[in-house]
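Discrete fold record:
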Amino acid sequence: MTTMLTEAPNMEEFQNSQRFEKACKLNFDIGGELLRQLVNHKLSVMSQPLDKVLQMPHNQMMFQKHLQKKILHKDQVSLLNSNTVSLDKMDLSLLTYLLLNSFQISLQNQKDIYQLRKCRNDLAHPTGAHLKTDDVFNRTFDSLKSICCDLDRTLTTTNPGVNVATYTDQLFCVVQELKKQNLVTRVSHRCRIQLCQEKLMTELFEKNDSLTEGKF
């Protein structure tokens, strides 16, 4: 009886830790890759490479203004202006910033991206890296599914009659694998720092009532 009483809290703690780690992996790894796919799709529609879009005058003015407001960091602006700029070098906060400010996206895309960011902000709160419910994971999954459905509509339009793996199919496969895993490595300290930095970045943007053009 004593053994059962001492083991029960440990199992609950492990499950809560798993919820947190899987929610982070879903948002950062799977979500990050999906946002890169979304940016690539927008670039394809514009028939422009990433560096050309970032160098457009209205984007350059926005980057400098947000740098002065400390919404963007110097390192982020340097990355955006780099001769070797790449989506692979951008973290989720920067991908989110670009999608909301530098590209024309649908209202549903905006809603989904805001929800993904809100989920990351929620993950920044737990001090013990634990979640008692699957709420954050489920909200993240719903937003990712919505983005996949939007990309799938384009995929089926550009490949009529061709049997191709949809973004939704791929998402379900990787999420099913994620659910089966027992993640033994705790979320890295760097990941926690990134969560807190993005939360601060969002708060700074929202406090700037004078900003009218940005949506981050």
